[in-house]
Design a protein that fits this description.
3 domains; alpha+beta; four-stranded mixed sheet; 29% helix; coiled coil; 374 residues; Immunoglobulin-like; single chain; 31% strand
Length: 374
């Protein structure tokens, strides 16, 4: 048998659960109209939620064809696996008060937890409670007290073989009649449901037409009003509408950019390393910018990097550009924000300007004849 899928619901959410039932032979059937029942739900025994039909009055539930919709509103249940207990009050003339109480406890494939639920619709109960309806009454159904009452004159147990054919048929009759009544009730309920759905569809169609007529009439009225307005009023309205549309467009653009950024972030690979390229010593006063070239691995990962410089010899801009302050060494932490454990610490050397020699005793000049510094 396939393991039922576990459905998850936030334990404070209101939700709707569809319960289905089987008879003794395993076929899906509705609960008969003449049978009172209680469905008790709990996670821990000190908190429970009860749905019932007593005397034809439904509480915390409503019929849905051959099923039952249980409406969990303000249920006060805590976290854990949801369990339920079906309590039927069956008509049985052999019982002293004419009522036979039958219980069917069972765990459900529904988990209440602290995270968001995985469904906003009606939750189907994957574990179907079984109950007996309309099955023949057999010898095994007698209680020890009933067997004692049916003993013969000599005290021998009254067995099934002692029943006559007429007695057997008489014992079968209540169950057979109950099955017929239940089947007829189920058919009536199905017919009534179909009629209600047809009426609801007719009403919906009428309402849709009325709404459409109202929209058309409103449009005609607005058109007439616009024609009657002055040119100044029309210009003011047009300017107001343009401003509103511009603001709405800007808001939509910002939301789309945010969605695109989140999608890009979600699609990016998870960082798994950091590649570094360090410049040679940086000379004070050199106008050519020097950079710490850092690359987050793999290639498609988000390239978000933070630079933290210490000791005061140099600073680092957010784009990795080195700002020399004074000669000395500066320690710099290079930290990828998507994977901080892959950070690296490098040393930047800042040197004072110095003359460069082309040969012993000869200064090195650039192409314009200027003195070239380190």
């Amino acid at each position: 048998m396939m393991q039922p899928k576990i459905r998850h619901i936030h334990y404070r959410d209101d939700f709707v659960l569809r319960e289905r039932f089987r008879n003794g032979s395993g076929s899906l059937v509705p609960l008969p109209d003449g049978v009172d029942f209680e469905l008790r739900y709990w996670v821990k025994h000190n908190r429970e939620f009860v749905a019932s039909r007593i005397g034809g009055v439904y509480s915390n539930c409503t019929p849905d064809g051959d099923a039952l919709l249980v409406i969990f509103k303000d249920h006060n249940l805590c976290e854990g696996t949801l369990k339920h207990d079906l309590h039927l009050r069956l008509v049985n003339d052999l019982m002293p008060d004419g009522v036979q109480n039958v219980y069917y406890p069972e765990d459900m494939a529904v988990q209440l937890w602290h995270l968001p639920g995985d469904s906003d619709g009606v939750i189907e109960s994957d574990l179907l409670a079984a109950y007996t309806r309309g099955l023949p009454f057999t010898y095994d159904d007698f209680t020890p007290e009933q067997l004692a009452a049916l003993k013969g004159d000599k005290g021998d147990p009254f067995t099934w073989a002692d029943f006559t054919s007429a007695q057997i048929e008489l014992l079968k009759q209540p169950a057979t009649d109950a099955a017929k009544v239940a089947a007829a009730a189920a058919q009536q309920a199905a017919d009534a449901t179909r009629e209600l759905r047809e009426q609801a569809q007719t009403l919906a169609n009428t309402a849709d037409k009325a709404i459409q007529d109202c929209i058309t009439a409103t449009g005609d009225a607005n058109k007439a009003k616009t024609t009657a307005d002055t040119a100044a009023k029309s210009a003011t309205d047009a300017a107001t509408e343009a401003n509103a549309q511009r603001e709405l467009t800007e808001q939509s653009r910002q939301r789309l950019e945010a969605v695109a950024d989140r999608a890009e972030l979600a699609a990016a690979p998870v960082p798994d390393g950091l590649r570094m390229e360090m410049p040679a010593p940086v000379t004070l006063g050199n106008p050519v910018p020097r950079y710490i070239n850092a690359r987050v691995l793999p290639a498609g990962a988000q390239q978000n990097i933070i630079y933290q410089a210490f000791s005061g010899a140099a600073g680092v801009e957010p784009d990795g550009r080195i700002l020399p302050f004074r000669p000395g060494l500066a320690r710099v932490h290079v930290i990828p924000t998507g994977g901080t454990r892959y950070y690296k610490t490098v040393t930047v050397q800042v040197v004072a300007p110095a003359l460069r020699l082309a040969a012993p005793g000869a200064l090195r000049l650039d192409s314009a004849g200027n003195i070239r510094l380190t």
